[in-house]
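Project outcomes to date are best conveyed with an example. Our students and postdoctoral researchers have been running inverse folding experiments weekly, and each run begins with a structure described purely in tokens. The record below, which covers 170 residues, was selected by the lab manager from last quarter's runs and is presented without edits.
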């Protein structure tokens, strides 16, 4: 499964690079090293945000438009968390400097891609207790979330995102 996850993420990045016609920017980590314990804690928090926001959407279906939930509205906390992990500038009166943690975002991308692989496998052979419509909705929403996290990770500008979205028919 790890190979499929790595291939999925690599493929998305290659697609972005081809569509934008330039290499993707790589964020730099903060100057202070991140301990394994802190990295695991931050990753766990991001993963919990995913599950909590997904469950809220399942319960309320309040972000669904034309039957499909919008990832931007379904996962506002997770996307804000990712922005915080990638923060490179703070206000002059901030008590601490910006400490970007792109390695945690990479961990989250691996988790999200792994979830896509799991959902794809489940959709190919659903069990009796599985709701195929809910699985498809979760797949589509998570698929879109991977793109949104990649846009943030690589610091894409609004015009670049618009160009990518138009090319994908979104």
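After processing, the design step wrote out the following sequence:
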């Amino acid at each position: 499964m790890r190979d499929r996850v790595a291939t999925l993420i690599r493929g998305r990045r290659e697609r972005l690079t081809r569509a934008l016609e330039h290499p993707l920017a790589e964020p730099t980590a903060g100057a202070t090293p991140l301990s394994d314990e802190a990295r695991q804690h931050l990753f766990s928090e991001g993963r919990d945000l995913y599950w909590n926001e997904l469950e809220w959407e399942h319960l309320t279906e309040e972000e669904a438009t034309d039957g499909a939930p919008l990832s931007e509205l379904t996962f506002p906390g997770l996307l804000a968390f990712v922005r915080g992990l990638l923060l490179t500038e703070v206000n002059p009166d901030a008590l601490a400097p910006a400490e970007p943690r792109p390695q945690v975002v990479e961990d989250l991308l691996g988790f999200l891609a792994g979830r896509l692989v799991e959902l794809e496998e489940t959709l190919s052979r659903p069990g009796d207790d599985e709701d195929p419509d809910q699985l498809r909705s979760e797949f589509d929403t998570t698929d879109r979330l991977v793109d949104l996290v990649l846009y943030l990770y690589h610091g894409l500008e609004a015009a670049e995102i618009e160009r990518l979205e138009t090319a994908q028919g979104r």
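The mean pLDDT is 90. The helical segments are 2-20, 36-60, 71-74, 76-85, 102-124, 132-153, 158-167. The training component of this project remains on track.
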